[in-house]
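Session log. Operator J.P. requested a structure for one protein chain; no other inputs attached. Running the standard single-chain path with token output.
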Amino acid sequence: MVLTLYKMDMSSCCRAVLLTIKALDLPVEYVEVNLLKREASAPHIAKLNPRCKIPILEDNGAVIWDSHAINAYLVQTYGKDCKLYPSDAAGQANVQGWLYFDTEIFAKLNDLMVQVSTTRTISEQTYEEVRNIYHVLNNYLKEKKWITGDNVTIADFSLLSTIESFNCCLEVDPNKYANVARWLGEAQKLPFYEVTTKKGIEDLAGFLKFLLSAKK
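Structure written below.
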């Protein structure tokens, strides 16, 4: 088994894959791709992924891109009898539904990043959209420990990575979003959380702080 992951820790999509890799305790070689220097547009990256985006996984000749696809592939290939991605159709559909939701809110995260990069500000409308995302999750998590129930899944990994990126701009208020705060707290207790997440979040928070403090 020779796994290679092209990634950047600041990317929420890459952090989601790192969580799955560490949860499965897989040996992986990492290739750093600096998105800020547009390295994802390099010819060798474009050859692997015509969309010129990371993460990208290589596995003995197979090339998989998109964090959701990579995580499902890793669990189905190397996590036999693993609860990270259920084996039954209903369980998989539940996880996939939340991964589609993650795709939807990631688009808003991408819009936020473009807004900060181009205007050095975050509009009140954008803040309201983020609050609405927190509200939806908070209501859903009232009676759940994890997104799909009692067990952590790749849906948690993807949503966690996206929500923590939003959290760099608009902190999850535990008084308003107690269930989201509790869920984040549970995730932060995972034994592989710090090694997969801390550096990327710190880098992202620092980058956003720099952009928001700079004048156009």
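Operator note: Strands lie at 3-7, 28-32, 56-59, 62-65.
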